[in-house]
Each structure stands twice: as C-alpha cells, then as structure tokens.
Amino acid sequence: MNKIALREQLTAFLHEDIGFGDISSGLIDQRETSFATVTAKMDGVFCGMDVVLELAQLQRLVVESCLPDGSNVSVGDELFTLRGKTRTLLETERVLLNLVQHLSGIATMTRRCVERLDDPTITVSDTRKTTPGLRMLEKQAVRAGGGKNHRLRLDDAVMIKDNHITALGGIANAVARARTLAGHTTPVEVEVETVDQLHEAIAANADIIMFDNRTPEEVKVWRALVPGHIKTEVSGGITVETIASYRGTGIDVISIGQLTHSVTALDCSLNLIGGIKHAVTRNDASAIR
Fold first, then answer.
1. Alpha-carbon Rg of the chain, whole angstroms?
2. Where would I find the beta strands (DSSP E) of 146-276?
3. Which of 83, 116, 129, 148 is catalytic?
C-alpha cells in the first residue's frame, strides 16, 4: 500500500464530501468529544484498516481498536472504535463507511470464490475492471480476501489480447515485438480463443497463456497441450456461482472481474457510544442514555 497516494486520495474524498464545512455537525459544540463504534450488519470479511488509520490521522481522531484486514465478521461484530471531537467523527463518517463497506464487500466476494473453488493449486485473481481512482484499495481488498492481483497497470506486463493480435498481424509477430521492446523482467501473456491460437502462443513461447471464455472441459484439454514452463490462466464469465466447476482443471490462475466490478458492499454502521442506535446494534438497552 502506497501510504502517500492513499493520504492524497483520502484528502480529496474528504474535500468532495465536506465542501466548505459540515453544516449539520457544526450544530454540535466544538468542544464535545465522543467514542464511536463501527459494527457489521452483515456476515463477511473486513477490509479497510489502512483507510481507518490514515483517515483518523488526517482528521485527528484516535483509533482505539481495529480488526486486521481479512478478519471474518458476523452481524453485530465491532470492526473498529474511534475517539475524538464529535463534529469530526460525524463529518468523517460517510467517507469512512463508503470505503470500508466497499472494500469489505470485495474481500468477502474474494473469500467466497476461494472457498468455493477449494483448490489450493489454483490462484484466484482479480482483473483491471476496477473503479477508476480506487484500484490500489480494491486490489488490497482482493488480497485481504485471499486472492492475488493481476496487473496493477498497463506497464506491469505485456498482455496481448484479440485486438492486439489483429493490429499486429498475428500472435507470432506480437510476441516477437514484445520481446524486442519489453525488458527481461516484463512477462508476456497472450489471450487465446481457439486451439490454433493456443498452438501459436506455445510456439511463440509466451510466458503466460490465457484461455478466454473456455468451459472446464475445454480448459482440461487445452492445459494438457501447454508445456509445464508456461503458466496458464482462464478468464471470462467465471463467477462465484460457477468457479467450483474449474476445480482440478490444472489451470494456474482464474481471473474474475466480478471480484471488483459488481460486488455488494458489506453493510455496517457507525454509532456514537451511548446513543440509541448503538444500543440497538449491540443489543444492549442499558446503553441508551
């Protein structure tokens, strides 16, 4: 996690939400301090510790407790607790919850995919189908859920897809040009859609071959054709509902866009300790003041 980049992003998010000042929180005495807890309203996997710590530092809040990324949580579990000026807690609430809920939703989806696949020989990976501006955080959430990251950016690796193959006149020429222009530390991946393309990619000695939109049965057959020194990946249309069918196919990596582009946020709630909502969330009527 690039903490410098994270702090810049969080500062921009606070500017976007607070504007010239939080009018509602401005009604509260500026000397008042409070404790606030954030609790889960759904079962899932928590992610967002870096966000909590950096936002707290930016807003001069104290983090009393915080679960580590990757923690399994159930409804009612306390995710983290903050202390500070009441005004500041409330003006920070929405940016904080938006990010934590979104990242925890990604971590939860990733964990479900890993568990349903139930094959430690296959890596579950994300894609570049991320929210603009949030890629660093979303990729971190995938790792928190037990997955691994594909390319972070276009300059991480060469990935020759269908349009590159068309523009460069074939796989052989595309890989040859990549070897000429890219450094020795830059891997070359080729996406293939037919058996003929698979043989071309093998002949070109690609580092990684991606099978695009292939069934588990096709993956088994194609994987058997690939030499052991070439890594294999399958992608396209694989979801948490279908991933288990790829168990035992011999593939090295399954990359899934669903991990980041269509997840459900993990609902959670921030409540000042002693308030009515805090007592209800914690199922503790005696805490109502």
1. 23
2. 158-160, 188-192, 208-212, 231-235, 253-255, 268-272
3. 129
Q: Is 217 a catalytic residue?
A: no
Give residue-wise pLDDT tens across range 199-248.
Answer: 999 999 999 999 999 999 999 999 999 999 999 999 998 999 999 999 99
CATH architecture of the domain covering 118-261: Alpha-Beta Barrel (3.20)
Distance CA 179, CA 261 (A): 32
Cα–Cα distance measured from residue 212 to residue 227, given in angstroms and rounded to the nearest whole number: 18
Q: What is the pLDDT of residues 261-284, one digit of tens each?
A: 989 999 999 999 865 455 444 444
Given 212, 218, 252, 267, the catalytic residue: 212
Q: For the domain bounded by 3-112+264-287, which CATH number is listed? A: 3.90.1170.20
Q: Which of 7, 41, 94, 148 is catalytic?
A: 94
Residue with tokens 């979303």: 138
Query: Catalytic annotation on 129?
Result: yes
Can you give the residue ranges of every domain in the chain? 3-112+264-287, 118-261
d(CA 233, CA 123): 9
Q: Single out the residue of 166, 174, 170 nearest to residue 206, CA to CA.
A: 174
Out of 161, 177, 220, 231, pick the active-site residue: 161
**CA end-to-end distance (rounded Å), the chain:** 41
- CA 57, distance to chain mean position in Å, is 23
Catalytic choice (69, 126, 138, 191):
191
